Amino acid sequence: MKPFTQTADTLDQELADKIDGILAAHGEDPTQLVGILLDVEAAVERHYIPEAAAYYVAERLGVKPTQVYDVISFYTALHDKPRAKFTLEVCSSAPCRVKDSDTLLERLKRLLNLEVGQVTYDGRFSIEQVPCFGACDVSPAVRVNGVVYGHLDSEERILDMLHLLADDVLVLQIRDDTPDALGAAVSLAGDLRNPDLRLLMLLREE
């Protein structure tokens, strides 16, 4: 990770107040740094730890900023760069693959027009493959911000989940070169202002 280029002074007051509450809940105990950072990441909409927030935590706990960086770098559950608002985590373990998690992954990639690790241009969705998260009994499943959505064994159920995540999402089908001549894109209702999106809708309505 790169050295700090910001300080706690650049942290906005709203996030500072949230972090203060998190620190209080952990008794401002430096030995609970991992748990504190996990809670801080969960409090940020894009699910990462901004540099100023990391510096603020270090300052409040009386530890070196490099110690905070070391923890963020070591734990894969922690991130220092913005992620999607809804990160769709698909289990890559053998038991879930037997229960068709690969098909779920391919459907998500097609519906969102994304590859694993990419983020939609509006920052709303991304897809990640992760180790087992203990949902084999409801596989194929995804975990989104700590919540498991199971039995996603049809496209209809996947779309229902996406609508649950964002009730202002529109599902638009577009032409492609696949045998069934259908693709899909998921976008915010506000994206209707995008001329390209209107073109996609016209293609579908013709």
Task: Work out the number of β strands.
Answer: 6
Straight-line distance between termini = 50 Å
Low-confidence stretches: 168-206
Order of helices and strands: HHHHEHHEEEHEEH
The main pleated sheet reads as: 4 strands, mixed
Radius of gyration: 20 Å
The chain-level mean pLDDT equals 79
Helix/strand layout:
Layout: H1 13-25, H2 33-43, H3 51-61, H4 65-74, E1 86-91, H5 94-98, H6 101-112, E2 125-130, E3 142-144, E4 147-149, H7 155-165, E5 169-174, E6 183-188, H8 195-205
Parallel strand pairs: 1-2
Antiparallel strand pairs: 1-3, 3-4, 5-6
Structure, described:
With 206 residues, the chain is α+β, with helices and mostly antiparallel strands. 41% of the residues lie in helices and 15% in strands. The protein has 8 helices and 6 strands. The protein has helices at residues 13-25, 33-43, 51-61, 65-74, 94-98, 101-112, 155-165, 195-205; strands at 86-91, 125-130, 142-144, 147-149, 169-174, 183-188. The strands form 2 sheets. A 4-stranded mixed beta sheet has the order 2-1-3-4, covered by helices on one side. Strands 5-6 form a two-stranded antiparallel sheet. The longest helix is centred in the N-terminal third of the chain and has 13 residues, at 13-25. It is elongated, with a radius of gyration of 20 Å. The model is unreliable at 168-206 (pLDDT under 50).
